[in-house]
Amino acid sequence: MTLPPQAPNAPPVQPIFELIEVEQVFEVPKPGRPLFSRDTVGLRALDGVRLSIRKGTSLAIVGESGSGKSTLLRVLLGLDKPSGGRALYRGKPIGEARAQGTDFARDVAMVYQDARGSLDPRMTIGAILAEPLRHFNIVPPEGEAQRIAHLLDRVGLPVDAAERFPSGLSGGQVRRVAIARALASEPSVLVADEAVSGLDVSTQAQLLTLLQSLQRDMGLTLAFITHDLGVASYLCEEIAIMYLGRIVETGPTDAVLNAPAHPYSAALRAAAPQFFEPLSEPLPGEIPSPLDLPKGCRFSTRCPVAQSDCQSKDPQLGKLGSGRAVACIHPITQA
Amino acid sequence: MSIQTPEAPTTLPPAAPLDTANRSRRSVFVRRPFFTIALIVAVAYLVAAIFAPQVAPFDPVQQDFNVMMQPPTAAHLFGTDSYGQDILSRVIYGARFALIIGIFAVLIGAAGGLVIGLAAGLSGGGSEWALMRLIDAILALPSLILAVAFIAILGQGVDKVVIAVGLSMIGPFARTVRGDVLQVRVQLFIEAAQLMSIPYLRVVWRHVLPNVIFPLAVQVTIRISEAILVSSSLSFLGIGVTPPTPDWGLMIAEGRDFVSFAPWMSAMPGFALALLLIALTIVGDGIREEFDPKLRKDP
So what's the ipTM on this one? Predict the structure, then answer.
């Protein structure tokens, strides 16, 4: 595992984010309830998530759609309060940190998946970038134009883009603007939700290179939500794989992807298309409904190596060797 | 701090989208001939209204019993009425009142509608429900009936007509504003601004309001004609402005008794009113189609 450069005998650093048994249950109308009935049923979008994000690290959160990635993100950003467990930011509950002034908002910046939707269509790019600069008092007013030019340069956009409106930019350029706005507040944590999905491959590569260099040079902590294992392995030192609202495996990206311990990670890894190889057998069945979680291990219904005790015991995320953790009763061991 | 991706262009590729935007803005008069004609007509009315004393050949309230009820002649292009007043001059001065009443009434309606609509769209819950029922109550009555009711309370006169018509238009404006607010406030850029811990009122001011004001401005241009029509109807019913004010609705009403043998007395102001309303409607529609982001093709 590659740790960021650190003072040799620094005390163990407090993680930036720490999630302890975080649960998020949404009350939704019970399926098939009679008309006028008010029955609701709890949808466990997050179910016992344990995760810690250390300073300077880059973490990929990977999972199928419906696995709770976006819910996790909203908890991390303090947009939603978890219904159970504790979500801490530098040792403080995230909700409290957010309520206490602008420090949290300045320190944790977000890049939305829908970059175009996250930019006000009636503002020029310059005005969009000036907003956080002014709000957080980053630069004196006379230095604003220069800082905007610098930010645009940083993300590889020409200075004259400041006069444009978002509708005049391409998809890749709009994402660069979104990244520039996130960087404007000089954050130490950058949270990105599918920041490169839906772009063509060359644009993706440019953005990934940009994000990687930003992360390295500014010492950013990066939480990157994606469904693309290739992106995760390129950009992130660590990976957390989610399935049905729980993190089933975490660890250094290389180790997890080369020797997955959880059968689900192994299946994800095998499902990624390879050059010159036929596609592997997909996992049987669909992801179960979070309204009706399987008994025992939540993956047992689709697990190719499930055993009888998997249906009775729900495994928690437990340590497995150096920096890795897996939520499986019978983790795959490398022969 | 000079990290650049190797592929980063030094300037943006030829500014194609901006260019087309400019071109379409320049050629809007060519692409929309009816819009152009209507705009010229509307501007002509505006100029006539502003420079009425210079343009009108006679004093609009000067009575001359020697030329009573004359059909259009070279001296009196639109003829004269039963008091011998020159109808052309009265029509020109009437444009003043029509436009003043239309513009100021709509501004009152738009301002009231903006406040109520914003409050309803942003508050939610019980206060939204109460505000919307208030708007529904206003909308349940046609604006003419409502204006009649306000006139009954306020009394007659140009300023009273402006207020009455303006108040009666708050309902429709409030409803459109609320609809726009509901659409805008769930947009991602609002959440992004709140994520930056920008105070809520500042988000409303900087992000919600500009995205609501532009559609509202388009609504204003469309509804001026409605306000003029309502005010003319009030005058026609004899409860708007008081004679001898040269108002079109009043003139039509005055000529009504003579319509079988002096049709120009009602026809001329009626024609002036119809032409202005048609022109304003076409201009409003053109502006809406040109600037409404929902109808505009994305560059």
Answer: 0.79
